[in-house]
Amino acid sequence: MHDQLMEIYKKLFEHFGPRHWWPADSPFEMIMGAILTQNVSWSSAATAIESLKNEGILSIEGILSCDPENLASLIRPARYHNQKAKKLQSFCQVAAEEFGGDLDAFLSLEMGTLRERLLGIFGIGPETADCIILYAAEKPIFVIDAYTKRIFSRLGFCPEKISYEDLQQFFMSNLPQDVDLYNEYHAQIDALGHHTCLKSKPHCGECPAAYRCTARQA
Ligand code: SF4
Question: Helix, strand or coil for residue 157?
Fold first, then answer.
């Protein structure tokens, strides 16, 4: 199974090239982006990040000192802005109160402990927690998302309705625990899901994984 997963990875990498994830200038910006991109495209989240930067509040103290309504209005391009403002402030509150505002100390927690603490924060589910662990804390956890489930079920590796945990376990037990590999593999899956393996009309003719796909369309 390891060889099959690595073969797909290599085909994707040759096709899309390096994705340079995560697109952020700092771990804190990465974390805010991971929350802001929930249920919306990255371009919408990026616009909201720019807005926070322009306002000079892209920091733990800045987010916490911002009036919730004002914060919501600044991140409006990312949609669900009231909920997301609360999520950003909830994360910052934990970072400030439990770690004295030292984000490195927070991210230095042992991986399992870090995941558990992140999942206890309002608005952080498994996918967001794992993105933070992989891309901000740089610890080896494989991120699963809707694209991963769609693509790997179409490729015949798993049922379409496989659970997040089971699919994560599948990747992590068949690949080496390697931050760089997990980083790039997830980014490559995102590229395939976003550009090629679309939900209703996949562009199979231009898919680098078509050679082994059971759901390939003419
Ligand atoms: S061949 Fe088509 S259905 Fe299969 S993974 Fe590629 S784009 Fe998706």
Answer: coil
